[in-house]
């Protein structure tokens, strides 16, 4: 019997195993609920970031940042570094892009990239970070992702148990949006839930949720950089619904979600189902 560890499961999810080994892993998964759950979580945590960068206009990387990264990763002499710069140009752009993406997720470079103060009145820092992150998404980033019911339910259960966040996935099909996936991200060591939808045309729409100890707040629209956003707070959770496509009526969708009039695709608690039946 093959020993299926986490590294092997990651290679399986990434499609890097040869056919024979892949068959063995699939057989092991079919006979193990634990392995099946791990695969679901791994699939839920992976996103085609490379495709997002290839198809999106990434903000230009400052020359000073490029030089600093070169200094950090290079072990060559100054003379060698100058002659190899043109050879390493494309990998260096990727290194800088990866650095920027990580900084956006942690909220470090938000204001730097957008050219605005992330702490200016009226824009929550986490909302601006989400907007700067979501702007990298294009239609092709998520178009080929298939909705995975098992993975979605596993991620939501983990969010409820691990983080205590009663997050549901709204059903936005009446608004012309198809649900793609849910992910648990991090913002300054705080769990941040991202749900991604795709309209028939245009760029993705995202609904993000984070814990917030402030009081409830009504639905409010705001332009944040290139992103149209609608925010509100309820029951110690803060929400932002956002998209680049202005043809999507985010305000109407947000009001439906905030008022509880929008039905749920995933995440209803058993007691909620019993009350509604």
Automatic annotation (TrEMBL):
Transmembrane segments: 94-113
Highest rank taxon of the organism: Bacteria
Segments forming domain Putative zinc-finger: 7-33
Signal peptide limits: none
UniProt keyword annotations, A-Z: Membrane, Transmembrane, Transmembrane helix
One Pfam family it belongs to: zf-HC2
InterPro entries documented for this protein: Anti_sigma_zinc_sf (IPR041916), Znf_put (IPR027383)
Name of protein: Transmembrane anti-sigma factor
The organism of origin for this protein: Caballeronia humi
């Amino acid at each position: 019997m093959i020993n299926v560890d986490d590294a092997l499961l990651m290679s399986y999810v990434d499609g890097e195993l040869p056919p024979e080994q892949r068959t063995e892993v699939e057989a092991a998964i079919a006979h193990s609920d634990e392995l099946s759950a791990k695969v679901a979580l791994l699939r839920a945590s992976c996103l085609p970031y490379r495709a997002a960068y290839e198809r999106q206009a990434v903000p230009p990387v400052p020359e000073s940042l490029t030089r600093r990264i070169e200094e950090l990763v290079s072990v060559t002499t100054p003379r060698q570094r100058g002659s190899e710069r043109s050879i390493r140009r494309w990998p260096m752009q990727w290194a800088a892009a990866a650095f920027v993406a990580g900084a956006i997720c942690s909220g470090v470079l938000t204001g730097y990239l957008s050219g605005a103060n992330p702490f200016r009145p009226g824009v929550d820092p986490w909302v601006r970070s989400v907007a700067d992150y979501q702007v990298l998404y294009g239609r092709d980033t998520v178009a080929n992702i298939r909705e995975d019911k098992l993975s979605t339910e596993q991620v939501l259960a983990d969010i409820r148990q691990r983080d205590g966040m009663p997050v549901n996935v709204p059903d936005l099909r009446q608004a012309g949006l198809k649900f793609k996936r849910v992910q648990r991200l991090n913002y300054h060591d705080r769990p941040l839930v991202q749900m991604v939808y795709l309209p028939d045309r245009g760029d993705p729409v995202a609904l993000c949720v984070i814990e917030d100890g402030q009081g409830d707040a009504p639905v409010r629209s705001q332009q944040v950089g290139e992103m149209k956003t609608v925010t509100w707070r309820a029951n110690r959770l803060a929400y932002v619904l956002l998209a680049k496509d202005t043809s999507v009526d985010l305000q109407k969708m947000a009001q439906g979600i905030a008022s509880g009039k929008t039905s749920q695709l995933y995440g209803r608690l058993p007691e909620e189902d019993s009350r509604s039946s």
